[in-house]
Structures are given as C-alpha cells and as structure tokens.
C-alpha cells in the first residue's frame, strides 16, 4: 500500500530527464542525417566516376580510330570551340550548350566494300550518283548487304595517291542525300562534305585502279542542354548523323586539347622547348590544317558530384590523353606533299 510520503519524481526531475532524452535523440538524428548525406554524396561521387569512365571509354575508342584507312586530313571533320557558332549548319544541334566544343572524328568500316563502275558516276562535285557493279559488298559470302540511311557517310576512292590540298583527289567522304536500299546498285551523295576537303568530284574519272566505296564511321561528341536551362547537361555521342546518345549526365564542362606534330617528325611539338611533353604543349584551338597533324587528344570532362543548384554545381574533373595511332598519312619531309596509300579489305576477302 502506497503512503502519502512515498518517494517519487518531482516535476523538475521529469523535465530534466526529458531534456536529456531530447538531446540524446537529437544527437542520434543528427548522426543518421549525416550518415544519409554522406551515403548520398558517396553515391553521387560513384555515379560521377562511373559516368566519366563510361564517357572516356567511348571517346577513347572513337578517337583512337580517327583516320583509320583515311587521309589524315579526313580524320577529324570539325572542332568547334563554340557549338552554336553556325559551322556545318546541316549538323547543328538545336539544344547544344553555348560555348561548348564539339569534336567530329572519322574512320573506315572495312567490313563492307563495293566496287564502283568507272565512268558511270554522275555529278560535278560531291553531289551525284555512284553506281556499283554488284550490290553485294566484299568480302563475298562473308558479309550481307545492308541498307544505308540518309545522312550516312561513305568514302569514295579511285585515285591518286598523293594527298595535297586543293588538287583533284579522286577520294573523299560524302554524306548520302537519300537512303540506299538493300541490294541497290547506286549511292546518291549530297553536297555535305566532311571537314574542309576540296577538289573532290564523284563524277570525274581517274585512271588507275577500280573505284571503291566503303561505309565510313563518323562520330561526334558534344554537350546537350535542355532548352532554356543550364542543367541537366549530357555529354552526347552520335554516329553517322543519327540520334544523340547520352553517355554521361550532369556534365559541367567539356574541353578538348591537342598535341600537334606540325613539323611531321613523328613526335608531338615541344612548344616550350623543355624536352618534355607537358600541358604547356597542348593547344585548345585547332584549325582544320592542324587537325591533320594531331598526335594525341586530351579530353577533360567535369562531372557534377552533387545535384546542381542555382544553375551551378560542385564538379570533379576527369581527363585522359588519347593517342591517334591510326593516322596513316605520311609526310616524307616538310617540303614534300603528304602521301596517302589506300588499303582496301583484300585481306578480309582471302579464303
């Protein structure tokens, strides 16, 4: 039986215990919130690293292929420091980010090669019709003929070997102006040429080896922005003029820098003459003539490591220097014209 004088808690004691309990609970909540924030930031950093690795892997693969089977002057089709500067309007991107560079690279697809009938081609420039002797591509019995969509790039080759600017090359990259159906005997080419090539005429007949047409692989990279908004930005990749494919999201900036070999000695230019290849030897501006001498490309991608706020974000840079090992044009000396030797896919046709 409880008496009137039984021991108990006073109001002050209860309030004190409640205050201590609130302090303990608040501290625990702070730890939980901090842990959740740290976990979210770690996930965002991981996502940024994963996105950067994925993007750099794609860029590395395509840039390393630049110039495969092509003259060096056709390895890079364009480099725009500002994607909205109006260069190559047929390729302009309506949602390109202002002041964001775009890079376009090309290589040959050797899996399919068609023989062109000499003298049957029409056209007075790059626009015209290329007629092939057999709709089935080489290597026969090893690959199937395919339909090519409009805006696909093809490489036409006939002659000559010497690849000098402003001459009648007899070879070049052109874009299809109409779809080419499977088993069709002709390719309809348009006026859009790759890069700054000149002296290329699909209707002109050159003496020498049979003319060939091969499918080309043309990739383009840049930043894609939503209309009227700075974020989310995506680093996109498109092949052959087809739809843009995002390869990294929440990209704050994209930059390309180049190692040139302007004296054609096989080594990148040592601009500061210190005997070492450093960042000081890289150029962030490139003309079409310089792009024919690229030895390596540095790609720098800044990825947001947290969700953008107030049109900005905290970003981490990721970079990679990618060598251009497949530039096959050779300069005998600084005073002699470059030599391009076309190599077809004869090896693939061997039994």
Low-confidence residue ranges: 84-94
Written as H for each helix and E for each strand, in order along the chain, the element string is HEEEEEEEEEEHEEH
Could you tell me the mean pLDDT? 78
Strand content: 25-35%
> Radius of gyration over alpha carbons?
29 Å
Question: In total, how many domains does the architecture comprise?
Answer: 1
Q: What is the makeup of the main sheet?
A: 9 strands, antiparallel
Describe this structure in words.
By secondary structure, this protein is α+β, with helices and mostly antiparallel strands. It has one domain. The chain contains 3 helices and 12 strands. The strands form 2 sheets. Strands 1, 2, 3, 4, 5, 6, 7, 8 and 9 form a 9-stranded antiparallel sheet that branches. The protein is elongated and about 115 Å long. Mean pLDDT is about 80; it is low at about 85-95.
Task: State the main characteristics.
nine-stranded antiparallel beta sheet; elongated; alpha+beta; three-stranded antiparallel beta sheet; 351 residues; 28% strand
Give the structure's gist in a few sentences.
With 351 residues, the protein is of the alpha+beta class. It is built from three helices and twelve strands.
Per-chain topology:
Blueprint: H1 11-65, E1 76-80, E2 102-116, E3 128-131, E4 153-157, E5 171-176, E6 186-193, E7 211-224, E8 234-239, E9 245-249, E10 251-260, H2 288-291, E11 294-304, E12 315-323, H3 346-349
Antiparallel strand pairs: 1-2, 2-7, 3-6, 4-5, 4-7, 5-6, 7-8, 8-9, 10-11, 11-12
């Amino acid at each position: 039986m409880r008496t009137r004088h039984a021991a108990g808690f006073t109001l002050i004691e209860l309030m004190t215990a409640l205050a201590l309990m609130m302090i303990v609970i608040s501290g625990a909540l702070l730890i939980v919130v901090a842990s959740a924030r740290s976990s979210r930031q770690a996930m965002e950093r991981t996502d940024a690293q994963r996105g950067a690795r994925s993007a750099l892997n794609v860029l590395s693969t395509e840039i390393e292929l630049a110039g495969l089977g092509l003259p060096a002057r056709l390895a890079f089709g364009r480099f725009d420091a500002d994607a909205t500067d109006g260069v190559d309007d047929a390729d302009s991107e309506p949602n390109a980010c202002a002041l964001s560079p775009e890079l376009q690279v090309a290589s040959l697809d050797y899996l399919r090669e068609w023989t062109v009938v000499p003298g049957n081609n029409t056209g007075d420039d790059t626009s015209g019709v290329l007629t092939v002797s057999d709709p089935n591509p080489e290597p026969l019995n090893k690959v199937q003929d395919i339909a090519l969509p409009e805006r696909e790039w093809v490489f036409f080759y006939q002659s000559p070997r010497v690849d000098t600017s402003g001459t009648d090359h007899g070879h070049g990259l052109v874009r299809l102006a109409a779809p080419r159906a499977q088993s069709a005997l002709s390719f309809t080419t348009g006026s859009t040429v790759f890069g700054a090539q000149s002296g290329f005429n699909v209707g002109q007949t050159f003496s020498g080896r049979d003319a060939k047409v091969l499918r080309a692989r043309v990739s383009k990279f840049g930043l894609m922005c939503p209309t009227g908004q700075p974020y989310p930005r995506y680093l996109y990749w498109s092949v052959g003029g087809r739809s843009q494919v995002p390869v990294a999201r929440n990209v704050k900036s994209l930059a390309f820098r180049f190692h040139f070999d302007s004296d054609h000695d096989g080594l990148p230019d040592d601009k500061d003459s210190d005997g070492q290849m450093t960042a000081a030897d890289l150029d962030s501006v490139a003309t079409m003539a310089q792009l024919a001498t690229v030895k390596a490309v540095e790609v720098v991608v800044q990825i947001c490591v947290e969700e953008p706020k107030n049109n900005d974000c905290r970003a981490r840079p990721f970079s990679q220097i990618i060598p251009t090992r497949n530039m096959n044009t050779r300069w005998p000396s600084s005073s002699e014209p470059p030599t391009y030797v076309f190599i077809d896919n004869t090896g693939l046709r061997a039994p």
